[in-house]
Amino acid sequence: MGRTHFDFTDETVVVTGGSSGIGRQVALSFGEAGAAVVVADVREEPKGADVPTHELLRERGGTAAFAETDVSDPQQVKSVVEAAREYGGVDVMVNNAGLHIEAPLTDLTPEQFDHIFAVNARGVYFGTQAAANDMLDRGEPGTIVNTASISSNLAQKGQVQYDATKGAVRMITRGSALELAEEGIRVNAVAPGQIATEFTEGWTEEAQSAADEGGFIKPVPLGRAGFPADVAPAVLYLASEDAGYVTGELLHVDGGWQVF
Fold first, then answer.
1. pTM of whole model > 0.85?
2. Which of 19, 46, 55, 161 has the fewest CB atoms inside 10 Å of its own CB, making it the most exposed?
3. Ketoreductase domain: from which residue to which, for each copy (predicted)?
4. For residue 238, is it within any domain?
5. Which residues are catalytic?
6. First-to-last C-alpha distance (Å) of the chain
């Protein structure tokens, strides 16, 4: 089966939450495709790996930098976008940083509610805003890709707060795509399913056997676990000229989870 080879040479990509998990793989994939990558995260050290993402990219011959960034603070998000001017300005903004808090509706505290919305929804909104303003200021329309979730459309027990934030990401994506279309800026989102990352405790070790044994509440039709390497190509596709007529889209990368 053939594979797509993307070329982002001479382009600059900002990936929030790029130190670990899906964001790390997305950043590495853009770097492998020739982009200069700015990794924006609250922590430089990756979870489940020894070498920070930007350092690994440099070891591989790429151009990369790390910017400590709390996406719940719009000024910090704006600052990392401004810092990308050193490499020519943001061509692709990947609003990937996210937080998962699982708790019953009856137990979630106001502080937890505010925190998860600040990261998952506020971070995406102001990340989109900062990137769009930078592109407009430079007269260089680019692309924005947000990380949504199957939870953008699917309710799950104990996850009202998380589902609500990812539903917000879906509508931020669609609304932004509508507003920015006339400026030539495309805005899309990927919607990963249950992906084996460092953030799902025990998932990485158990995911494959659970998939093989039908151990999910809702089995994955493709019959295997999902991994960050499954999500990254979808992000690169949406950011590329191959998706030049695609905007406002929510692209599921879930092995068919949402089909039934």
1. yes
2. 55
3. 11-206
4. yes
5. 162
6. 27
Number of structural domains (the chain) is 1
| CA separation for the pair 38, 74 (Å, rounded) | 17
Q: What is the pLDDT along the chain (260 residues), one digit of tens a residue?
A: 778 899 999 999 999 999 999 999 999 999 999 999 999 999 999 998 999 999 999 999 999 999 999 999 999 999 999 999 999 999 999 999 999 999 999 999 999 999 999 999 999 999 999 999 999 999 999 999 999 999 999 888 889 999 999 999 999 999 999 999 999 999 999 999 989 875 444 444 555 555 455 454 677 899 888 999 999 999 999 999 999 999 999 999 999 988 87
User: The domain containing residue 90 runs over which residues?
Assistant: 12-192+229-247
The runs of H, that is alpha helices, within 17-71 are: 21-32, 53-59
Q: Helix, strand or coil for residue 249?
A: coil
Report the CATH number that the domain containing residue 26 is assigned in CATH.
Answer: 3.40.50.720
